[in-house]
Amino acid sequence: MQSNPLDKQQHPLEKFSFCPHCGSKWKVNNVKSKHCEQCGFTYYANPSSATAAFIINDRKELLAVRRKKEPAKGTLDLPGGFVDMDESGEEGVVREVKEETGLDVTCARYLFSIPNLYEYSGMGIHTLDMFYLCKVADTTSLQAMDDAEEALWIPLSAVNPDTFGLCSIRQAVGLFVKKTQTFPI
């Protein structure tokens, strides 16, 4: 399994030297927060929520997309993305699948989550990636859109987790493939 190149990256809070409330120099409070002794403001760097969808068609094929942008541009991914403000995980995965593939999710069942470190604007953003088993109304409208360069169906028997570019996605695909071999869908 490939190592995550972000493992050695600088913590996101290291990029910020001054309190956003009063402008004073601030200090590390703990591993996930900084505190300003001047005004008392404390900022916590909590993980962002992201989703990914496992979509299987009638031929027992997994829907994958090819990433159009960095990080991991050109590698395989699952349809999904960041959850918007005031949106549930289920609403987020439904929206992201529609934006990237044009497909309408009719049912999204939560499976599991995996923490991840996602490179964005030169920082390692901690995320909590939530994985869903999704059903779609109709697969005939499938098209690569938004962040997806290509959308393709891969027979479950041929899915190779190592071809997926993001660490948490590789791990999740490996778990999913192993579970479908034990408990067929």
Briefly say what this structure is.
With 185 residues, this protein is an alpha+beta fold. It has helices at residues 89-101, 167-182; strands at residues 27-30, 33-35, 42-44, 48-55, 61-67, 76-77, 80-82, 105-120, 123-136, 148-155.
Question: How does this structure look, described?
Answer:
With 185 residues, the chain is an alpha+beta fold. It is elongated, with a radius of gyration of 19 Å. The chain has two helices and ten strands. Strand 2 and strand 3 (42-44) form a beta hairpin.
Q: What features would you highlight for this structure?
A:
about 180 residues; alpha+beta; three-stranded antiparallel sheet; 2 helices; about 35% strand
Topology:
Layout: E1 27-30, E2 33-35, E3 42-44, E4 48-55, E5 61-67, E6 76-77, E7 80-82, H1 89-101, E8 105-120, E9 123-136, E10 148-155, H2 167-182
Parallel strand pairs: 4-9
Antiparallel strand pairs: 1-2, 2-3, 4-7, 5-6, 5-10, 8-9
Low-confidence segments, given as residue ranges, are: 1-8
Number of strands: 10
Radius of gyration: 19 Å
- Going across the biggest sheet, name each strand in turn: 7-4-9-8
Q: Could you give a short account of the major beta sheet?
A: 4 strands, mixed
Question: DSSP strand (E) fraction?
Answer: 35-45%
Secondary-structure content class = alpha+beta
The portion of residues assigned to helices is 10-25%
Q: What's the overall geometry?
A: elongated
- Summarize model confidence as the mean pLDDT: 91
Separate helix tally: 2
Q: How would you name the oligomeric state of the polypeptide chains in this document?
A: single chain
SSE series: EEEEEEEHEEEH
Distance between the termini: 26 Å
